[in-house]
Structures are given as C-alpha cells and as structure tokens.
Design goal:
homodimer; 268 residues; alpha+beta; 4-stranded antiparallel beta sheet; 3-stranded antiparallel beta sheet; 10 helices; 14% strand
C-alpha cells in the first residue's frame, strides 16, 4: 500500500460498477462509512478524510456537506472543531444503529438459533394487523403469513399470541419466495456481478493506494448492506436455492478480508 | 338388576331431561346405540331389543323403522333374518366410524401427544382455503387461524406447507374461545344439568331394570357424543377455563361405570 495515487483502470471500473444505476444516497453511504471505519466508541473521522474518500467515490463536496448536515440534524453524527479542522463521530444512537446492522453485514455465516418459535395472532382488521406486525418486526420477528410470525429461541410471554416452541421442519417454496421476492432476487444477482468487478483490483492488492482501498471497501460494504438488510435475518435455507445471497456473502467476506478497515491517514 | 319394570320417578325424570329440547335425531341415536352395545365384530341386536330400548326412550316404532331403513341404505348397518326375527349389526364401515368416535367418547382423559406441529398454508383464495382446510381437518388437524393448523406428533411430509415441530407454549383466550364458541359453551353447561338428572336414579342402581339401565346409558352416551364431537380433540388447556366439558366428562365416566354396557336380553 502507498499513498501516492496512480492510475489503475481496474479500480475505476470497480468504483463505476459499484456506484452505477440507482441514485447513490449520500447520507446512507456516509452512515456506511462511519459504520465501517469509525464504529468504535471514541473513533472519529476528520472532514478532510471524509472529503477524500467521498471525493474518490465521485460524490460532490456540496452533496457531502448536505448529507453531513442532515445526519447531524437526525442525531446520527456529531461534529467537533479541533483548531481549524472539523472532526465527526457517531452519536451513541448512531453507534447503536450501526452496531446492530454490523452484526449482520460483517458476519461470514448467518446465525442459526438452537430453537425457534412461531406466534399466531388473532385474525383482525388490516390496520390492527399492520400495527401488530410493526411491533413484532421491531422485536426481530419475521412475518410468515398475515397472522403468523417466526421468532428465534423460546417464545417470550405474550398473552395475546398463540405460541409454539420448536424446530423448523420444512420451508415451502412459496414462503421462500415471500421472504425473497423476485425484485430482491434480481438485485442480489446484480450485486454479484458488481462484486465481481470489485474483485479485479484485488489481484494485486499491494498496488492499491490506501484511498482506493478505502473507497472500494466502503462501496462494497454499502452495496452489500443495501441488499442484505432488505432480507429477513434468517439462514440460507429460508430463501430460494437460486438466490445469489450466499455467493454475495462469500465474495464480500473475501473482498473485505483483503482491504484494511481503516480510513486513509491524512499526512501533513 | 331385574327385568321386571316397576315405576321409578327418578328414571322417568332422567329420560325426560336427556330427551327434552332439541329434536332427537332417531338415526343418530341408533348409531349411538349400536356403537355402545354392538360395536364388537359379530355383535348384533335383534329387532325386539331395538324396539324395547327405543320404546323406553319414547321413540315411536315407525320412526325407528324409518331410521333403520335409512341407516341400511347409507351403509351403516345390515340386517339378517333369523327365523321370524330380524337381527341388525354394524357394517364394517359403520363399525369403523363408531370405533373412531368411541376412542373419544369413552375416554376418561384426553390424549395429550408428546409433541405437536403447526403447519402454515400460503395465503390463498377463500375457496382454495376451504378445500385445504377440509383435507387437513380430515387428517386430524385443528384450524387455529385461517392459514394455520395444529397437528399431533411430528409433521408428516407436505411440500406446500411450512411446518414446525415442537411444544405448545401458550394458548391465548381468543383461541380458546375460537375452539369453543359461546354456543358450545352453553350446550356444555346445559349438558351438565341434564347429566345431573341422570345421576339421581344411580343412587340405588340395583333397583334399576336392565331396560331402564340400557335406556339411561344410551341417552347419556348420546348426549355426551353430540357435544363432545363438536369440540376439537384437544386437551382441556385449549378450552376456556369456564368450560363445563371436563365436568361433563367426569360425570359421564361415573354414570357409565355404574351402568352395564349390554343390551337387555329378551327372554322367551
């Protein structure tokens, strides 16, 4: 690794592949960046570091300033002036959110609990059902059918829900496709192609600058995060066999293993 | 016990209590009678015995003849002439049906399986759902919600159903009331009162004639059967605490233990 940028067509191709298509939401990408490089309590990033990395990704300085303003306003990050420089860090709220997500994003395998439980809700009006579903999903439940939800481990006390503890015996195809709809299947397949572009510059990782490595790493984590967090947190057996999710996970693990998890230092 | 009928106001009151109210469906009562007194292979009842018992219950001879005709036509019973007398027996189909029901009717406790399973069906149109429910209920499943069903023991292979094996953790009140709706609760409470009337003649069972004992027994089995078979075959914990079902079961056990399970012999 060295700090001297030099032209590398593979890295440009990889960055283009990972930023193409849908609008890159800058504030969301900056959350990914903090979650990856400054998640630990006390960790911070300077304005200069942020500008450098987001600039390499192709984000305009003004778009970055707007996003930082929004993230401060929404309580995700806080800033501190040190001399003439600004430093940014996750707030306790922001750190908590990114730590929750990090458990899934960086995991090499999906956690499979020793046991499961299903809860059944009383048939009810659509609005009540939506409110209950929101509560249960916030607690980590996965919706199976309009009145049934899957939870990990033994069922907690919940007087209004029928509950059964046990082991999953069979996941039918219709449920796999409900848990991973066609759109998500396609996005996952598309992600795999983009990740393949990100593999190319890794052929000679020692030739990557610290900045290119950081930019590539952030874009890979961000692209993976955007697909992964739309999937329920369930083992692969709950999803269609044709899903490229497991392949993407493996590639992400491989790429991140080859790229250091730290922001490039600003010298001088 | 003796064969000489003598007036007993308690038995008349009991028979009146057990036959009052809703129309007694004669063919259904005759199924109860065969199921109780001639369920074993080879067992049969003579026309004279049937007339005697149904007569004691208050069924007109013509109503009995119509019912026997219908039951023969529907394949429940078959008849054979022996000299000038007719003898009746359950067909193999009729025996199978009554044996299935007998497991529940005469049981002193409800069978609780070591484990359960829940299956979930894909949300589907009403007609498809009704067809699936019919299939599952025929296999012994109990409908919990419009797309979820409870089965005993481990789940059998069923590719289209999500299946989980385990233990019931909690049965909420709404489910207890779904499994035992108000009408059934009331009928159960009413049955308890009628069974109390049937207890009176048992104070001195040795004074009962064989015919009175048989009539009383058949009416008790019949009244219990009509309420019991409208309930799902589940342990008491699945029903409201206020249900009089367990009390009825105990009284039925007590009454049947005091009355012999055999048709009165016709002498001469």
């Amino acid at each position: 690794m060295n700090m001297t940028p030099k032209p590398d067509p593979a890295i440009d191709t990889a960055i283009a592949a990972l930023t193409q298509g849908r609008d890159l939401r800058v504030w969301s990408l900056i959350v990914t960046l903090f979650g990856d490089m400054a998640r630990a309590p006390g960790a911070r990033l300077s304005g200069a570091q942020l500008s450098l990395i987001t600039g390499r990704i192709g984000i305009r300085p003004e778009a970055m300033r707007v996003a930082l303003h929004r993230l401060r306003k929404d309580g995700w990050i806080e800033s501190k002036r040190v001399g003439r420089a600004s430093h940014y860090a996750l707030t306790p709220f922001g750190r908590d959110q990114t730590q929750q997500a990090a458990k899934r994003i960086y995991a090499g395998t999906v956690d499979t609990p020793d046991s499961w439980h299903i809860v059944l809700a009383e048939p009810m009006a659509q609005a009540d059902r939506a409110a209950l579903e929101q509560q249960l999903v916030a607690k980590g439940y996965v919706t199976l059918t309009p009145t049934s939800y899957l939870g990990k481990g033994p069922a907690p006390a919940a007087p209004s829900l029928m509950a059964m503890n046990g082991q999953i015996d069979h996941v039918p195809d219709w449920l796999k496709h409900t848990l991973m709809p066609d759109r998500l299947m396609q996005d996952c397949a598309h992600l795999e192609k983009r990740l393949k572009a990100a593999l190319k510059p890794l052929a000679c990782p020692e030739e990557l600058t610290a900045l290119d490595a950081a930019a590539l790493r952030i874009l890979v984590v961000h692209a993976w995060r955007r697909v992964l967090l739309r999937q329920a947190d369930l083992p692969d057996a709950f999803f269609p066999v044709a899903s490229r999710g497991p392949a993407c996970r493996q590639m992400v693990q491989h790429i991140l293993g080859a790229l250091p998890q730290q922001a490039p230092e600003i010298s001088g």
